[in-house]
Amino acid sequence: MPTYSEMLKLFGFKSKNAVFRVVEKLMEAGLVAKDHLGRLIPAKAFSEVPMCGLVTAGLPATVEEELADTVNLEIC
Question: Quick check: 76 pLDDT over 50?
Answer without folding.
Answer: no
